[in-house]
Hints:
Structural class: alpha/beta
Mean pLDDT: 89
Radius of gyration: 16 Å
CATH topology of the domain at 37-108 and 119-148: Glutaredoxin
Low-confidence stretches: 1-14
Helix content: 40-55%
CATH architecture of the domain at 37-108 and 119-148: 3-Layer(aba) Sandwich
CATH superfamily of the domain at 37-108 and 119-148: Glutaredoxin
Oligomer: single chain
Shape: globular
Amino acid sequence: MVALLVVACTGNAATEPGDLPEMDLAAFQTQLETSDRPAVVNVWASWCLPCRDEAPLFTSAHAEYGDRVGFYGIAYNDNQPGARQFLAEFDLPFTHYFDFDGDALVEYGGIGVPRTYFFAGGGTLITTHNGVIDSETLTRQIEELLSR
Length: 148
C-alpha cells in the first residue's frame, strides 16, 4: 500500500489511452510553416471557466471552416484526465496538444488562458486574442485569415 502511494505521488510517465500528445513546439511550428492553410490555435485548460464558455464556439467554427482552416487546441497547465474530460464534454473535433509548461505561450506571447492565435498560411502569426473570444470576433478573425 505504501509503495503504491509513493509511486502515485511521484508521477508516472506512462500515458493512458486517449491522452493528448505532448507539445513538440518545433514540430508544431514546422506543421504551421509547411501548410498553405491558415490556422486557429486556441490555448485552454479544463479548470478555466472562460475556456469552458468559449469551447462550443470552436466546435461550431470548425464545423463551418474546418475544410479551409486548420484548428488546433493546446491544453496548458492542466492534467491529462482533466484535458480528456474537457475534450469529451465539448466534442472538440480537431487536434489538441498537451503543453503543461506553456512553451507555446512563451513562443507566441502571452500569459494565462484562454488565448487564441491566428496564423496565416505559411505559419505567420497575424493576431492574438487575449481572454475569452466571442462568436463575432472569432468569425471576423477567421474571415480575415481567409481573405489574405
